[in-house]
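Sample entry (558 residues):
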Amino acid sequence: MSSFTEEDLTRLAGARSFARGQDYLSDVAELSATDDRITATVYGTEPYHVLLLLAGPRLTGSCDCPYGQDGHFCKHCVAVGLTALAQRDDLQQLSAETARRAQTLDDWLDSLDRDQLRDLLREQLATDPDLHRRLELRAAAAGSDTSAVRAQILRLLDTRPFEQYGVVDRRDAAGYAAQLTEAALAIRALATTEPDAEAVMLAETAINAIGEAAERIDDSDGDLSHAAEEMAQAHLEACRRLRPDPVRTAEWLAAHLLGDWSHLPELDPAEYRDILGEPGWAELRRLTYEAHRSHPSGWTERYVLESVLKADGRVDELVTALSTDLEPNGSTHLAIALELDRAGRRDEAVAWAERGLSETETAPPRDRRLIEFLAHRYEEAGRLTDLVRVRRDDFRHHGTLATYRSLRTACRAADCWPAERPRALDLLHCTALEEHTGQRPHTAPVLIEALLDDGDAEAAWKTAPSVPTAPAQWVRLADAVREQHPAEALPVYLRALTPLKQQTGDPAYERMTELLLSVRACHRALDTEPEFTRYLADLRADQKRKRNLMRMLDEHGL
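Predicted structure, serialized as tokens:
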């Protein structure tokens, strides 16, 4: 069984829920465990059912209390987790006992004859209306009772039983999604027993209803999306089995893809290529072209046309379609370059990427993937001069640590970094000064980060006073030069400690402890440890009510 700790429970629940969970330890009952899950009932205001899932080092939990249904790792989950930790040595035995009980149930069911199983199932059906409805639908589908299946599925598609004020709340979306999954199962069953295309028609009706209903459903947990994908798969399987009229199917597919709700479920035209055959595929292509001509700037029309052309392998037509409306950030140039690249037309792909850089030079923010694509292709082709040029241009437009590193890597490959580095640092220095004088929004100067990244701590330390260096950067600089300049590093650490004295919480205490260790190291290097002893005594006296801080200081010998 995967392991977890109290720290994991605190991280998932938060300090408040963790503390409240400790009050419910005596209310945990029916603890059960397998290799990857723990279940239990917690008797709070009412019985709440908890499930903890363990996937490697990752722990997740769910509970049917109101707070848990909102997606939180609640106090009941904490109580079950703490109980499992307390019984860790017994969990393996508990897991074995859970498996033994399950096997006992399976053996008993296997021992029952047909009549006994029927009586048992009828007894359950009399008290479980949901089970009764599911089996009734499956029976109708298996018996090819098409009219009954249609009536049941139409009822399952109705959102009204789950609506409040015209919308389906997140907590009710799962129930509606479960009904959709039932409908998809019934359609699959009908497709195996009914020779005509009724199952296909029902799946299309369901997909249309899902798309329309999605506007009224809070699908934050993704239950509706998952159920919609199940229905899409049921439609695809029914089409493959029953082979409906290809032209009519193409018309329906185009209407869905180009409709207002085509995002749910997402259908891939390529998956229908063989189903539609040449007549249907030609009709789908005609309809998508017609839609694009009618509304060339429409995102949906363009996306559907691109999907059809990709599935058809028509690279030149795809390039033509894409190039009619080029995005100013270069993303369309990149899409064209990628399609040409996949078709093995590398030179044309590079040409489009180069065009993208040229035509988007004055239109930031440029799609950074375009730059990376072109740089990678230059590197592959050994065009190191072009590689440096692209990286230099990118660095001049976006003087970040990442672009500095990329320029450095390219220049080292081209053996020109010693000549390029001073120019790059001068640019960063000018940028830092512009920020200092208010000509640019202030950010922590990249110049300091670049010098540190180069391993040139001395230069960074000497440069920092002339640019608006951030407090965190000063501490990093002090860490880098402390051994050589303990007297200069010491005031940096003391300044960083001052605001932390007013803060509470373990993160602040941990940072204070780290800084105090650095202060002590400076005093030791300067042979002034008595001064540190007095400083630490005053600090402990001032902060004595912070018990966790005192504990941390004790643990580190401070």
